[in-house]
Structure formats: C-alpha cells, structure tokens
Design a protein that fits this description.
The protein has 295 residues and is α/β, with parallel strands linked by helices. The chain has 2 domains: 130 residues, NAD(P)-binding Rossmann-like Domain (Rossmann fold, 3-Layer(aba) Sandwich); 115 residues, UDP-galactose 4-epimerase, domain 1 (Alpha-Beta Complex). Helix content is 41%, strand content 18%. It binds NADP nicotinamide-adenine-dinucleotide phosphate (NAP). NADP nicotinamide-adenine-dinucleotide phosphate binds next to helix 1. It comes from Rubrobacter tropicus.
C-alpha cells in the first residue's frame, strides 16, 4: 500500500515508518521545511514530500497516487487533513489523537474532541487512534528526561502523594496498534485508545524507572495544594504565569484507560512498563545519554 505518513521524524511516526517498511508498504513522508530532525529519514528508502500538515495544498500534493493517509503529526491539523484527503480522493485516513480527549479538564479534552469531531464527520473511511503517554527512546519528551534525572540524582521530588495513575505505552507497541488500525478493514469508523498494558501509580512508575537503571532513589514528597492555591491567587491578580492552576490539577488526574476494543479489533497487546523501560534504558546507554552500567 502507498501510504502518506506525517510525523515520521518524531517518536511514534519513526516507529511507524520502520513498521510500514518492514511490512512491505511504500511510505511517502510529509516533512516540514526546516525540520530539525529531517536527517532521521536519511537512511530510509522512502519518498519525501516537503510541506506543512496545516496546509491542505501541501498535503494534497503529497497525497497524489497514495492509497491511504496516516496522520501522526497532530490531530489539530484535522481540518486540512480532511480537506486534502477529500480533494485527492484518498478515502482511507487514520488520524492519531490522544487519550487526553478523555480528560475531565476542558482545556485538555475540548480541543482534541473537537478535532475528533471533524474527522468523524468527514465522510472518509476514518479511524482515530488515541495513544496514552508514549515512551521508548531519546525521542520521547517525558520518560527519557526522567531517566536522565534519575541517573544523576539520588533523590526525586514528587508533587502530591504520587498515587495518580499513568499508563505509558512503549512506542513500538503503540505503532503496532496504529498500524493494525490502518490495515484492518474492521477499524474503519472506530476510535481506539492505545495505552500501556496496565495503569501504575506515578511513584511506582518512578521507582520502576530507577530500578531499570539499577538505582535506589529516594522519593521526596512535595505538597501540591499550596502550589495550586498560589497559582490560583496569582491568576486572580492576573499575574503572568508559566503554568495554570488547572494544569496542576491535571497532574492529579488519573490517566488510566482500558483497551478492550483495540485488543478485540486490532490484536493490541502492549508490554508491561518494566519491560519497556528496560529497553529505553538500554537505548539511552547505547546513545550515551545515561551512564554505562556499573558492574
Ligand atoms: N508523545 C506522547 O506522549 C503522546 C501522547 C498522546 C498522543 N500523542 C500524539 O501522537 C502523535 C505523535 O507524537 P510524538 O510524540 O511522536 O510527536 P513528536 O515526536 O513531537 O513528533 C511530531 C512529528 O510531527 C511533525 N509535525 C509537527 N507539526 C507538523 C506540521 N505542521 N507539519 C508537518 N509535520 C509536523 C514533526 O516534524 P518536525 O520534524 O518538523 O518537528 C514530527 O515529525 C502526535 O499527534 C501526538 O499528539 C503523543
């Protein structure tokens, strides 16, 4: 299948690119002018189309001759994705969203849900894949920084009790889920949550990461509520702030999800965090971002 892939220079898109090639498809990648990570595609036998996912004209040109569009670069570009796919006559479209569409906080879920609505109303053969937090290599935004911090520090600060739930998914497992959503006809017209295998409390996530590094890290609890109250007061006084009080509240929100639908329709079977994090530790050691293992 000829697949136009957006987001191939990123964490999930990179794993999807490898999967598409290994499964015998012909990916073409839409890459922004000025992408700092375009070099990541150098070793791949693929066609590159320059353009922005927010520009339906760029997407339309890149879609010429494609059988499907796998849009990983951000669900906020749904309007141009839908417009371009319709104009190009490419009906099969898989769009990657986020489990933050389930958040009780409107500032997180609202924009995602609105964009999902654009895809659902498109009249295309759509599927929406919603990853939970993705980890697995130096390309991830959260866990690789956590590992680097734990690698250097014997203590780790935790805001609040650290009992809120997370369900991070290893990038290759998430990519497998998205890929199966693309190739299985049963996935048309469905949305799938793609979290890790089971939820774990934030403090356990940190402990598991420290164990994977071979570290005995001491967790130091910091109270969350005074920070939130101070932010709330500063907001009332209209002081400019780097973070909103509702973002602090979101830190307390459980991010736990079921994946029965994905398991049933896509054969989705993500690995446990303790396995994925060991792979990430090995990867970060390989590229020299954390210290080598001591005997
Ligand atoms: N990472 C997570 O924890 C997480 C969790 C839930 C959902 N998601 C969703 O999963 C998707 C992939 O996440 P990721 O972590 O792999 O992201 P990432 O590593 O930040 O990569 C983003 C990719 O999208 C490309 N991109 C962004 N804006 C673009 C534009 N206007 N035109 C063309 N390309 C553009 C980037 O290209 P450049 O090389 O030009 O930057 C890059 O290839 C995203 O839709 C994200 O919202 C991620």
């Amino acid at each position: 299948m000829k697949v136009l892939l957006t987001g191939a220079t990123g964490l999930l898109g990179g794993a999807l690119l490898d999967l598409l090639i290994s499964e015998g498809h012909e990916p073409r990648c839409l890459v922004r002018e000025g992408s700092q990570n375009a070099h990541r595609l150098d070793a791949h036998p693929i066609e590159i189309s320059r353009g922005d996912a927010g520009n339906a004209g760029d997407l339309g040109r890149a879609l010429a001759g494609a059988d499907a569009l796998l849009h990983v670069a951000g669900i906020e570009y749904a309007p141009s994705v839908v417009e371009a796919a319709r104009k190009a006559g490419v009906s099969r479209v898989v769009v990657v969203g986020s489990t933050s569409a389930h958040s009780a906080y409107e500032f997180r879920s609202g924009p995602k849900k609105r964009m999902e609505g654009v895809v659902e109303a498109s009249g295309l053969d759509w599927t929406i894949a919603r990853p939970a937090m993705i980890y697995g290599s130096e390309r991830d935004k959260n866990v690789h920084r956590l590992l680097r911090f734990l690698d250097r520090s014997p203590v780790f600060p935790i805001f609040g009790p650290g009992t809120n739930l997370w369900q991070p998914v290893y990038h290759e497992d998430c990519a497998r889920g998205v890929y199966e959503a693309l190739v299985r006809p049963t996935a048309v017209g469905h949305s799938y949550d793609l979290p890790g295998d089971e939820p774990l409390a934030y403090k356990d996530l940190v402990k598991t990461a420290a164990q994977a590094l071979g570290k005995r890290t001491r967790l130091v609890r910091l109270p969350l509520e005074p920070i939130r109250r101070a932010l709330l007061l500063a907001e009332t006084l209209r002081l400019p702030l780097p973070i909103k009080s509702e973002q602090v509240l979101r830190l307390r929100e459980d991010k736990a999800y079921t994946y029965d639908e994905a398991q049933k329709d896509l054969g989705y079977a993500p690995r446990p965090f303790r396995e994925g994090i060991e792979l990430e530790v090995a990867r970060l050691r390989e590229v020299g971002l954390i210290k080598p293992k001591t005997a």
